Amino acid sequence: LFKTKLLLMGKDVDIIMSKVMDDKKMLAIMDLLETTSVYCPSYFSHILAFRIVQLSISHGVSVNTAFGFAYYSAVLCHLGDLCNASKYAKFALDIMQRMQARQKYCRVYSVLYSMTFLKTNHMHSCLDPVLKAHREGLKAGDTAHATVCAVIYCNIAFRCEKKLASVKQVLTDLKREAQVYNQESVWGLAVPLEQAILNLMGCADKPNLLDGDAIPVENIETFITNAKSDDAERLLCVAYYYQMLVAYIFDDLELAI
Predict the structure, then answer these.
(1) Is residue 72 part of a domain?
(2) Separation between Cα atoms, residue 142 and residue 103, nearest integer Å
(3) Among 145, 213, 217, 219, which residue has the least CB neighbours within 10 Å?
(4) Nearest 5 degrees, angle CA 154-CA 246-CA 79?
(5) For residue 177, what are the contacts with CB-CB under 8 A and spacing of at least 6?
């Protein structure tokens, strides 16, 4: 992280874009770094994303550069540096546009709108761009990240105080779409939200527990146990969050804590 910050010091988008990568070997390396960073554990993907940014500075930009900057922005946001997170998020969008990297649209947006822009922009303003990214991802054949954008959209819509029935309908439609594209595993991130909505709509026997029709196993404890055994950290965090939320709303403070 420190090395990346030093390399970027004093550089704007125009300086970064002044050199375009044309070495085939380096382009292949950039593709490999991006693909690996997407599917490897998060603690390792940070390093790969930083490397994409570093190589973009030293060897020139490629279509992968936008993703590297998006991820770098998300890391800065996680560390509380919202000013620079916003700055480099805009870098990512600018580079993507200049490189005409439409095939990266969905992937870049899924990173930015799951982290940086949720903290730097009004949530309502995030809805349309994420939904557009979802559609662009489907057009490009990137069904996995299109589904990620769909999950992000549903979570933002829920937080934006839209009517629960309308969020549930959108969620149902997008879930059906995810099944068509065989992205049930990715859509699993939306399962806790779906059950939380059912609880809030009065469709659960015990509204303080995240149990019901949306949970694909016998109860939330089994769901969490399975997530732990699969090392599914993101799913685990989402499950704990929505379990805490419904427990708090229905006055089960002991469970919420």
Answers:
(1) yes
(2) 8
(3) 213
(4) 60
(5) 150
Query: What is the reported pTM?
Result: 0.88
Q: Contact at 8 Å (CB) between 52 and 30?
A: yes
Cα dihedral 197, 202, 204, 208 sign: positive
What's the total number of domains in the chain? 1
Tokens of 78: 């996680």
Give the separation between CA 55 and CA 39, rounded to whole angstroms: 20
142: its two tokens: 């990137």
Instruction: Please check whether residue 221 lies inside any domain of the structure.
Output: no
Domain that holds residue 73: 1-100
| Cβ atoms within 10 Å of 106's Cβ, excluding its own | 27
In a domain, 51, yes or no: yes
Length of the chain: 257
Which helix or strand (DSSP H or E) is residue 69 part of? helix 65-78
The answer to whether residue 128 sits within a structural domain is no
Q: 3-state class of 108 per DSSP?
A: helix
